[in-house]
Write a structure and sequence with these properties.
By secondary structure, the chain is mainly beta. It is built from no helices and twelve strands. The chain has one domain (13-158): Sandwich (Immunoglobulin-like). It has strands spanning 10-15, 17-18, 30-37, 40-48, 70-76, 81-87, 93-99, 112-118, 121-129, 138-146, 152-155, 173-175.
Length: 179
């Protein structure tokens, strides 16, 4: 039983548009799920594997992961406090707490993360402390990036503008993560 009683909040976001709102190619669509688990949160990714080069170094927390094949989940509370969870198919991750747009709070957060590649798809599951998500009400967005040249930027909720900017909190969608 979770801290929320018998019902565990679960939110699924489908990344099926380009960053500026056009339909994504069918082979690019990714699914990101956030759900409450005992003493924490779990983020699951089911995404196409594009076989981009892996980041250098071992499977661990990796700065600059957004420059590689990656799926990202952002969870925001009020006052521009939000969590950025980046997960890659080769087992690399980066989890950042932010207080103000692009303003980090401390070092990257520790998580438990497993990823596997199975043919044309990859799946990843991350678990982390409940305290990493700011208090609600909550808004979320999810993104996927792949490719070297050209680079593809995909979104659940588009972030139109001159260029992809995934820190546009006003473009996040309202979600109910419980109390």
């Amino acid at each position: 039983m979770s801290a929320f009683g018998a019902l565990s909040p679960e939110v699924e976001l489908i990344v099926d548009k380009t960053w500026d709102g056009l339909p994504a190619e069918p082979g690019e669509v990714a699914l990101v799920t956030l759900k409450s688990v005992d003493r924490g949160w779990e983020v699951s990714v089911d995404a196409p594997f594009h076989d981009d080069p892996a980041p250098p170094g071992p499977s661990a927390t990796t700065e600059g992961l957004w420059e590689h094949e990656v799926v990202e989940l952002f969870v925001a509370g009020p006052n521009e406090r939000y969590l950025e969870v980046e997960l890659g198919p080769h087992g690399h991750w980066l989890v950042l707490e932010l207080d103000g747009v692009r303003t980090r709070r401390g070092q990257p957060a520790p998580i438990s993360y497993d990823a596997s590649i199975d043919g044309a798809r990859w799946r990843g599951t991350a678990r982390f402390a409940r305290s990493l998500i700011p208090p609600g009400p909550h808004r979320m967005n999810a993104y996927a990036m792949h490719g070297v040249d050209p680079r593809r930027y995909l979104a659940h909720s588009p972030v139109p503008g001159d260029r992809p900017d995934f820190h546009r909190l006003e473009r996040f969608v309202a979600v109910d993560l419980g109390s």
